[in-house]
Amino acid sequence: MSSELLPFQVDLRGVVDLLSRHIYSSPRVFLRELLQNGRDALTARAEFDGGDSARGIRITPLDAGDGEFVLRDDGIGLTASEMTELLSTVGRSSKRDIFDLPRSDYLGQFGIGLLSCFMVADRIVIRSRSARGGAAVEWVGLGDGTFSVREVTDELPIGTSVHLTPRFDQSDLLTTASVLSLATTFGEFLPVPVRVDLPGGGVEVITRDAPFLGGSPDDTLAYGRDLLGAEPFDAIEIDVPATGTRGYAYVLPFSPPPGARQASRVYLGRMLLGERIDDVLPEWAFFVRTVIDSTGLSPTASRESLVDDESLEYTRAEIGATLRRWVMELGLQAPHLLSQFVATHDIALKALVLHDDELARFITKWLSVETSAGRMTIDTLVRRFPEVRYAETVDEFRQLASFARSDRPIVNGGYVYDSEIARLLPTLFEGVTAQRVDVADELDRLAEPPLAERDAAVRLEDRATLALASVECRAVVRGYEPHDLPALYVADDAVFRRIDRSRARGASSGLWGGVLSQVDDFVNASRAAENRPDAVARLCLNWNTPVVRQLAAVDDDAVFARSVHLLYVQALLAGHRPLAVADRALMTTALGDLIQLSVGLTEPAPSPDTDRPA
Ligand SMILES: Nc1ncnc2c1ncn2[C@@H]1O[C@H](COP(=O)(O)OP(=O)(O)OP(=O)(O)O)[C@@H](O)[C@H]1O
To answer: Residue 90: exposed, middle, or buried by beta-carbon count in 10 A (0-12, 13-18, 19+)?
Structure first.
């Protein structure tokens, strides 16, 4: 059997429906597509005969004319054969070059834009007279995929008019209020005049110069103010000649939520592509909002986003380079503004220095971190404490900060990027080291009681550990500052995870409880293998406080246990720890006894330790 090459058969009705209703996100875009065709026709006519500034586009909304919507341009126009070839062939466009590539001086390129009109009208009529000569012609296209072309005898001016009779459900979009708003949104910066007829006579010109393309500094800032809804901290000019991209990046005067990538307002050939295009800026650049116009970036077919190609990647990198340069120059020319900027955008800048070695060397010293000795700039930190010590989590920091010596502060590395920044410091500043500290190590480093008192302290540790058996907490005795803090509850992350597991085990049964026990066994075994202390919480009693020394001398076991319990609960509360069931039981009994003793009932209630579950 011989094979024959055949073209695909196409059901036009399906294609028209697919393209007009499914590519575009909203029927509003019909006006953008018509404006775009008008603008391209004017460009083609200017190429043909040199152009004339009086030429433009005129729109007559439904309620400003005689019952139909009309968009007229003074462009190149169409002959009858062009109408058949260009308007009636889906996917055929006159706006590509001999290699069939999109031409950058034209907005259209796909040959489908006109179909968007079927979202608002069932019937499109186009009347045109070509600048190249020939009779005036009329094309009528229907939503069912059929069309007709005929010559008309009317004396039409050169150019094209598109006439739409609205679909029953879409007439609102063709009336004056919508037309003014849509034409302004999409086309206010088009380089050709666009006029809109008003009901009852009168005309409104909706086009104006783009303030972000060579406008005066005042206009440029005013535009930024509108865009941000606040006075911009600064306006940074963007110019990427290789992709014909220009515009402004406005620096936010407030700090946006961390990680929120700023969307950009993007125009292509001065026609709006979208208000929230998010791949124009590098990810780290969330301290600016941008408006750009480009002739070298490519739209997707819906013309609502950009194709992520090399041009876009290059443009993104160039915009990133511009922003970095601005930061560097600000530091050199206006350091007071830089410190203000850093204070507002601390987090964004931390993200930035992690990506960028050169900038890191320059800007890191201006950033600040929280330490146990208060918030300080990195400059101060590395000058005063070149042996930088940091905690990895906020939780560890909080514990460490409560007993860190003021001459050896701890940096809180628990906030976004701060641990990474701490680890970066030795590569940025000579003679600086960075060490992660954990609670158990720091505790071991605290001073033990003096030799003469060591025995008493060890006895205190043993008795207190026994008193805390029901809550699986070990007592240790050390001397530390401040001198009025009798006890600290300390535990590393592994302990908190174990405590969570034991709570979950209490609430579950059978298989799951068994699995959690196995996890505990595994964790304990691996800690032992690594020679690390067991994952138990510790109550660190402060030998420097009179109350702890006195506690060591208490003989009455019941009074001793209650006092240890209260110190334990007090330390938990001071450390913002939630109280578990066993903790609450200790507290209730200890407080109850205290009240009894205070009101004169000398016999404390029987000890709960033996009969209360852990
Ligand atoms: N107002 C007009 N004046 C002259 N020619 C026009 C006009 N409108 C459309 N055309 C012709 O019809 C063709 C198809 O138009 P259509 O809007 O469907 O696609 P396009 O503008 O080429 O591309 P895109 O799909 O990207 O908009 C155009 O390429 C152009 O040659």
So the answer is: middle
